[in-house]
Amino acid sequence: MPISTQHPEPGIAVVTVDAPPVNALTVRGWFDLADEVTAAGRDPATHVVVLRAEGRGFNAGVDIKEIQRDGGFDALIGANHGCAAAFSAVYDCAVPVIAAVQGFCLGGGIGLVGNADVVVAADDATFGLPEVDRGALGAATHLARLVPQHLMRALFYTASTIDAHQLHHHGSVYAVVPREELDETALTLARQIAAKDTRVIRAAKQAINGIDVQPVHRSYRFEQGFTFELNLAGVSDGARQAFLEKGA
Fold this sequence. Notes:
It is a single chain. By secondary structure, the chain is α/β, with parallel strands linked by helices. The longest helix has 19 residues, at 74-92. It has one domain: 2-enoyl-CoA Hydratase, Chain A, domain 1, CATH 3.90.226.10. It contains eleven helices and nine strands. Helix 1 (27-42) packs parallel to helix 3 (74-92) and helix 3 (74-92) runs parallel beside helix 4. Strands 1-2-3-4-6-9 form a six-stranded mixed beta sheet, sandwiched between helices. A three-stranded mixed beta sheet has the order 5-7-8. It has helices at residues 27-42, 64-69, 74-92, 108-115, 140-143, 149-158, 164-170, 182-194, 198-210, 216-232, 235-247, and strands spanning 3-9, 12-17, 48-53, 97-101, 104-106, 118-122, 126-128, 161-163, 175-177.
């Protein structure tokens, strides 16, 4: 199963993405991730969720091969709706979500991490949006939650990456540790949250979301509208195919 949930300790749910080779998720994978995170938060026994991944990197975004295999727009529309569902599930989860990031965190990975409550990262973690190189737009909403506005614009326009230490400097990554310590670091933080009165923590999650200055659901859907325009113009298809041929 590409998405699974374990309960290693009382009060802690660990949702793991394991979709080799690079954790690029299919349409079904994005919806399954949304379902797992939502279900974990709805369980009264869950006090905190850790979102992690197996493999070389945390997440490489959508499965471009799936989109290119589709002769129409069903896979593209599905990926957009699936990403929106997964990002929303993290943001709207009834309990805090800790993202534990290793290796690459790209595209949709930024959407997940940007909507998480706390981010811990391995010292090899890098973050970025290659969207403009793929003929698409999206997740600038979430990158803007990780870095200041003008840096977000520079990273977005150039499709550049930023490392975990830089994000720690900006305060959006809580801790940077060696990769072998990543899971235990996330669990240590999760234990601290899980030990609190879950009624208070659940209320706090609602309160913090309620005073958020960024309307993450609306702004992300606004971005997606431009992706649809680029696809209708034929720009995105050519960029995706060039990416696949380059990697072949």
